[in-house]
Amino acid sequence: MFRNSETLPPPWEDLFGPLRHGSVDDLVVVGQSGQSIDARIATSTGHSHYINGQAGLAHLHRLRALVDAVVIGVGTAIADDPQLTVRRVAGPSPARVILDPNGRLLPTARALANDGIRRLVVTATGTPTRLPAGVEVVPIAADHGQLAPTAIIAALAESGFRRMLIEGGAHTVSRFLAAHCLDRLHILIAPIILGDGRASLTLPPIDRVDEAIRAPMHAHTLDGDGGGDVLLDCDLRAHRLPIGRAKMST
Can you give the pLDDT of all 250 residues of the chain as single tens digits? Predict the structure, then answer.
């Protein structure tokens, strides 16, 4: 993990410098979505490996290496069974967090493997779980079977995490975005058009364009050859609700 006072060489400072510290409170929460040009994360049959290229996957692993915890929903854990480790770049693997309000997660999930990294399952209070030894259970009061993103972030902050990556799936990232819990959103756009399939973000409808979330953004071509993934780094700090310890004036 980079030090707060360290200036990174180009292009890394532009990409990752904003993750160094929070501006709303003492937390930094970044969402990540990989998609096609037409904003699809999978085909209509659910096939998604791999929409993004090698440079996009390496970027995702760099994000993992720079945060304290990576968060996914139980649907992604079941469908994709990801390891959530850092393998494509140098750096430490973050703690792995799975949101499982109803106790659906199997104990054989690869993200629960005992490799010395913290493993946490966030679930609704009172929900029975079947988890391997050493997995931390974080109970949260549910609202109609759902865990509020603000409550999730607050609970993870209480567990000692300051930089968090909301990696997926699309439903999970959308809920954190709609709840104004994200400081930044990294959208990796692959140079393909699927035509149909699962949308990358699904948000509550609005009536007018002037009600839309306005997010300043920078575009980066990740591999520099003009044919790779494009990263949109979207700044959502103006919309983020305070969740952690408030920043103190000096």
Answer: 555 556 777 777 888 888 988 989 999 999 999 999 999 999 998 888 889 999 999 999 999 999 999 999 999 999 999 999 999 999 999 999 999 999 999 999 999 999 999 999 999 999 999 999 999 999 999 988 899 999 999 999 999 999 999 998 999 999 999 999 999 999 999 999 999 999 999 999 999 999 999 999 999 998 755 568 999 999 999 999 999 886 644 3
Nearest of 89, 93, 91, 133 to residue 114 by alpha carbon: 133
Q: Which of 185, 179, 174, 119 is nearest to 148 (CA)?
A: 179
Rounded distance between C-alpha atoms, residue 206 and residue 78, angstroms = 32
Partners of 97 in beta bridges: 71, 120
Distance CA 196, CA 143 (A): 33
Distances (CA, A) of 159 to 117, 153, 155: 14, 10, 6
3-class state of residue 199 by DSSP: strand
Q: Which of 169, 229, 197 is nearest to 38 (CA)?
A: 197
Residue 166 Cα distances to 31, 94, 115, 205, angstroms: 5, 12, 21, 22
In the chain, the domains with their CATH numbers are 26-40+51-153+166-205+216-239 (3.40.430.10)
Q: Note the residue count of the chain.
A: 250
Name the residue with tokens 């044919």: 227
User: Where would I find the beta strands (DSSP E) of 141-249?
Assistant: 163-168, 184-189, 198-199, 217-221, 230-235
